[in-house]
Design a protein that fits this description.
By secondary structure, the chain is α+β, with helices and mostly antiparallel strands. The protein folds into two domains: 314 residues, no CATH class; 51 residues, no CATH class. It contains ten helices and 20 strands. Strands 1, 2, 3, 4, 17, 18, 19 and 20 form an eight-stranded mixed sheet that branches. The chain has a five-stranded antiparallel sheet with strand order 12-16-13-14-15, covered by helices on one side. A four-stranded parallel sheet has the order 6-5-10-11, with helices on both faces.
Length: 389
Amino acid sequence: MKFQKLNISPNQSLQNAGFDWLLGEDTLPYINNELVIVTEKEAENYYEAVNELYEMFIEAAQHVIDNEKFAELGIPEELIELVKYSWENDKNWHLYGRFDLSGGLDGKPIQLIEFNADTATCIPETSTVQWASLKANGLDESSQFNTLYESLVNQFRELRNQNPHFEPTLLISTMEGYPEDDTNMKILGEAAEEAGFEVDFEHIENVEFSAIEGIYKQNIQDGSFTKYDFWFKLVPWEYIGWDEPELAEILTQIVKQGKTVVMNPAYTLLFQSKGILKILWELYPNHPLLLATDNKPLTGKPCVQKVLFGREGANVKILSESGVSLAKTEGEYEEQNVIYQEYTEFLTDNTGNYYQAGVFFAGEGAGLSFRRGGKIIDNKAQFCGHLVV
């Protein structure tokens, strides 16, 4: 791997933009002060890989629905009806997601690790911070595979075109107490506004849901309610299914009755479940973009044990060929079912750091970045931008 050292650190521009949570306190700064060097051909390969993978995910999701494999993917029963309905009726309303990949540089093959299809973050880092780092250091701002913001604007425009009978009013919701989520949604809201939406924000705890009327926010000053025809929630669908079954039922009725367009649609839960990695391998055995995956340890191969809906690298184990644990992370998902994916080593630098590529998909491949950490990329990993040469 090769790197471009930044003479001007991104820290000051992050502070100016109010992205204080990216700077790190008593820890390494989250934003790394180096850019990963990527050739034009390597960038093109990442783009083509995620476009192909997305088509494969569509086929895999159809297979799950046709064969009623929801339990295998761990889909909450309370959401199956909405997953099916959204697949048939909201197929083109998947706003964005992010593929996590190994390889892609130094001749190493690109291979799928997983797809963060429902509530992917790293939007401000990918769309804004790495671009600003080029500009601040006098580098060519176009020398990146990074059209994420423009692609989000295009996705919102297409969403309006597909739904002309809905008012372009968008409410964006996160869970309270997660400032990084709020910052991600700020960028998303700016893209929606550029596409002609009226945008508002409210934590999900304060949103009003009616199976008959739709989704509302109450005005604190006069007690009135504002209805929104579009709702984006940075709240995982599985959390709603597990913890809020009544809300799952209300949202099912809201969507089926055409009261509100909910994004990302419920069917992205199929993409989000790591159980679909096994389905992909069954449908596309030995495909060069995939790693062998099963619901039991792989015979004679080191593999990675993952829970179906783990996040940020939690509850992951790397197992040797004989099943001995070589590395693991703790987390709150230990009661979930697991899959076993063939182990592949991430890209490495000469100091022993590991790099996982992340490529956003928003209608097409839209933005590359890297996360740097240990053998298991978790919530302590650093963000690394890139430079195309």
